[in-house]
Amino acid sequence: MTASVDSTYGQLQHVVSLDPNASVVYxxxxxxxxxxxxTERPSEISVRCLFFARYAELVGSxxxxxxxxxxxxxxxxxxxxxxxxPGCDLIPEQPLVAVNQKHATxxxxxxxxxxxxxxxxxxxx
Length: 125
Description:
Elements: E1 3-9, E2 12-18, E3 25-30, E4 44-51, H1 54-59, E5 63-69, H2 74-84, E6 96-99, E7 102-104, E8 115-119
Parallel strand pairs: 3-5, 4-8
Antiparallel strand pairs: 1-2, 2-3, 4-5, 6-7, 6-8
């Protein structure tokens, strides 16, 4: 059984898809706009988000997809995720993150297809 909600609020389209055989997909998509030549320009990117250990427990999944406006930073992805993914608001304000398997700061601009990992604090001895 697949369920989805697709509704438009102003200039944003909110899409939530639930499929028991796939990851949950949360997205907030800007409505497409045409440039002066009348062709569509990319207005969004898709980012694969990975959650580890406690963070995966909080959001209920190890992998989710976020659809964000083109030019979004890691910080903007985190703000968006906190709004649309239940439990994500419990992730610390400045989590350790990696983009494409390299440690990153929240100012990094994301590209379509990037992998954004949220890494919990590590302890050991």
